[in-house]
Amino acid sequence: MRRQIPGLHLGQKDSETNLDGLFLVRVERAAYRWHWQKSFLELRFIVLEPAPSALRSFSGRLYCTDRALWKLNWFLRDFGYDSELLSRDQVDEKSLLNLQGVVRTSRTTLNGRAYQNLEAFAPAAEWEAPPSASINPAEDHRDADGL
Predict the structure, then answer these.
(1) Among 29, 38, 107, 112, which is most exposed with the fewest C-beta within 10 angstroms?
(2) 75 touches 91 (CB < 8 A)
(3) Would the pTM of this model clear 0.85, i.e. be above it?
(4) What SS3 class is residue 16?
(5) What is the Rg, in whole angstroms, of the alpha carbon atoms belonging to the chain?
């Protein structure tokens, strides 16, 4: 029996699905995944800003190895995680839900598989909307002269 599965012939998703850059995001899902070599926290984010990417989602991992704990700590602090839980070395998956912050991401391919890198974090308060272009260039000139 033959089954029609649309998109099966595509080896990889379109490049449009790649989310590279700086985004204001909200944590939609968080799960700790145990692995004998590298346990990790798997996170799913919803993009809030910039507007063209709003409501798109992506996933990333933060490893829980001794060498990678600095990055997990950075993420938790910048996203406003409960400082009392953090001081007790505890991560509550439910407490991570709906936390907001800024993430810089990039895509990498390893062994033919694409991964989303979580490169940097910042508190949501540091998000700045991209500057909008002025409609009237004369207004920009007056503002620059202080008039």
Answers:
(1) 112
(2) no
(3) no
(4) helix
(5) 20
- Judged on CB neighbours under 10 Å (0-12, 13-18, 19+), 122 is middle
Cα-flanking dihedrals φ and ψ of residue 3, to 5°?
A: -125, 135
Sheet strands side by side (includes 100-110) = 57-63, 40-49, 21-33, 100-110, 113-123
What does the block give as tokens for 13?
Answer: 């998703």
Residues 6+ apart with CB under 8 A from 78: 101, 102, 121, 122, 123
pLDDT band at residue 129 under the 50/70/90 scheme: low
Give the chain's count of helices (H) and strands (E): 4, 5
String of DSSP letters for 58-101: EEEEEE-SGGGHHHHHHHHHHTT--HHHHHTT---HHHHTT-EE
Q: Map out the domains of the chain as residue ranges.
A: 17-126
Q: DSSP assignment, residue 135?
A: S
